[in-house]
Amino acid sequence: MNRRIQYQVLGFGLFIAAMVPIWAQPADHAMQTAMADEHHTGHHAMHGMSADEHAAHRAAMAKTDFHVSMQHYAVPDVDLIDRSGTPVALRALLEGDQAVAVNFIFTTCTTICPVMTATFAQMRKELGPEADRIRLVSITIDPEHDTPVVLAGYAKRFGASQDWRFLTGKPSDVKRVLRIFDAWTGSKTSHRPITLMRRQGDNQWVRLEGLASGTTLAEQARTVMQ
Question: Is pTM beyond 0.90 here?
C-alpha cells in the first residue's frame, strides 16, 4: 500500500475513510482513537447548539480546493500559555531559530479542527527525519474553554510530541493574535481552516486557506525549511 496517500477533503467521513490505510498501522493507532474520542467529546460539548451554528464549518469541509498566498504579518509581542502552563513569548517562538507552521483550532470543534490537527500530525509523519526542522504551533481560538489542561488532553489524543506547541492565553491576547494573522471571524463557529508557514529569518508568511492534505502541507513545509 502506498504510504504517501494523496487526498482532498470532501467531508469528514471521506477524510476518515482516506486515512484508514495509514491509521490502521500500530504506530498510528493512537491517532485513530483520537479522532473517535474527539468526535465523542465534541458531541457532548456542543450539545444543544443548532445545526446552523456549524454551517460555516460544513461549507469549508465541502470545498475541495485551497488557496495559497504570501503575506506579511507583524507577530504581536504577547505572552501565551502552553499546555504545560508555561508562559510563551509568541514573537520569540515564531521568529526563532527554525521554520514554523501555525494553525488555529479549538477543542470542542467536531468538524474542521480534528481534521486540521490530524493533518498536521500526518505532515510530521511524511516529513520523517526532517520533521524536527519545522516547529508546529496550534493556537486555540477558544481560550476561555481551552485551558492548558484541556489542551494537554487534546494534544494527547492526537499523539502530539512535546515540541508541538499548543497555546492558549488571555482572551484579549488571543483575539489580538487572531486579528494580526487575519484569522478572526467574530465567532468560533465561523472559524476558517488556515495554515501559516514561515521560513527562518524571512519576513513573509505562506498562507494556505482551506483544507490541504498532509502530503500537500509536507511539500509546502519543505519549501520553508530550505
Answer: no
Find out whether 62 and 210 touch, Cβ atoms under 8 Å. Answer: no
Q: Can you name the residues that pair with 197 across neighbouring β-strands? A: 101, 206
- Domain contains 85: yes
1 within some domain: no
Residue 50's CB: how many other CB atoms inside 10 A? 8
Task: Find the angle CA(48)-CA(54)-CA(59) to the nearest 5 degrees.
Answer: 160
Structural domain harbouring 53: 12-224
Neighbours of 199 (CB within 10 A): 17
Tell how many helices (H) and how many strands (E) occur in the chain: 8, 8
Q: How many residues does the chain have?
A: 226
68 DSSP β-pair partners: 208
pLDDT tens string 157-185? 999 999 999 999 999 999 999 999 999 98
